[in-house]
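Researcher: Let's run the pair from yesterday's discussion. Sequence first, then tokens, for each.
Model: Starting with the first of the pair.
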Amino acid sequence: MSVATSWDTHRSFVAGQGLLLTVAGLFAVPAVASTVLRLLPPTDDTTALAASFIAYGLLAYAVVLGCLLAALVRARRRAALAALTGLTALLTAAHLTWLGPLFVADRRPVSTEPFSVLTLNLHNGEADPAVVADLAERADVVVLVETTRAAQTGLAARGWDDRFPYAVGDPRGEGSNTAVFSRYRLSGGTLLGRSNFSQWSVAVEIPEVGLVRLLAVHPCNPYCGGGRWHTEHEVVRAAVAAHGSGPLVVAGDFNAVAEQGPMQRLHRLGLRSATDLAGAGWLPTFPTGGLLPPLLPIDHVLVNGRLTATAVTAVTVPGTDHRGLLATIAGTG
């Protein structure tokens, strides 16, 4: 004798299955969009803003995959659903592969004593000078973005000039809004083309390592409009491409995450993130000071194959909307 079922048994099952597939479909839209933006990097300002959140596509894929797996278990006809679930699993794995290197440290041995680089956006000089000066005690070279004459005067009152006797782009003398300060001798400081913010190329004489070319960068963000985000990133790319085989560090506020086109092009030129090399994990730096935690890692320290990073720390400074990065760098054998 068959067991009688209530009139709504089949209806309830279908409703539950439909809900799972509806949620999966809703989250699949941003998930697939993140993959497309990663594989076909945009150059226009509006789409570039959307591409800033590519990494979060992994979270969307996790929801889609969970819903599809639950639906697959409940399904009576599974072939099409199994194929869709498998495709989703492959795309999820691709995003994991893109983020995975952040958590795996470089195993190349170092061959020199390390030196440290601090990069920080001062938010038009509003960062607390006492905290900046305290953090800089741990650095050998400092890249300050959106610095001002008043900000540098405040730092000077806290012994900044004694700590860093060498400078390029100091706004007190050169009227620049990006500056490099160093314990070691600087030479050959030149501006990188025309850009909304100052960008510098300078040689740093690092003990044991020798001359290290440092690019202190701050390409315009997509909100600048007029395609300047792409154009100013091309200035940085060209400077990297023109560099020879010597040690190279590129540091500053890139206004771009690792998954966006400009950063991918720099990676193809042989640059790697210090965060990646140190296995420091996910270190978003922007924005700070609001209700939400930092969401986007747009500040970077990049190095070429002559160097590696053994440690990277994100640092918080009151008064600015960026976290800074303090990277420990050394030559490789």
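Model: Moving on to the second of the pair.
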Amino acid sequence: AEFVQRSVKENLGVTVTIGNMEWKSLLKRLRSGDFQVSRYGWVGLPDPHTFLKLFRTNSTNNIAGYLNPEIDRLLDESLQAATEADRLAVLARAEAILQRDVPIAPLYYYTRPYLKVPVLRGLEPELNDTHLIKYMYWGDKERTP
């Protein structure tokens, strides 16, 4: 938060005050629209619908208050698509609208660096950053030429 605060001040000349509150209080404030800028994150399944549905008019997670009947229609249409390719094409159209309208402006993305030995197998990139030990194992040592 302090890094974002400093960056916004240095790059935009805008003074940002940081407020800290417990999660339930933050959600109540966000859902009532009582904020100017907020930290908010979302983790979902590795599927575009998981993220795009946040912008549905009646979504309780639509904290930006974004309203676009075309997005609602496309999300509904994607659920009725005959094939996976058709579904993804419809969702791509919805995403293009959101990119045009810019209802949110992400300032940063969560990252988590890892240091692992090359022989550890089963630790793969995963959207929710969940790595179950039961899928990890020691492989053969990598050989150098």
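Researcher: Give me one sentence on the second I can quote.
Model: Helices lie at 2-12, 23-32, 48-52, 69-79, 84-101.
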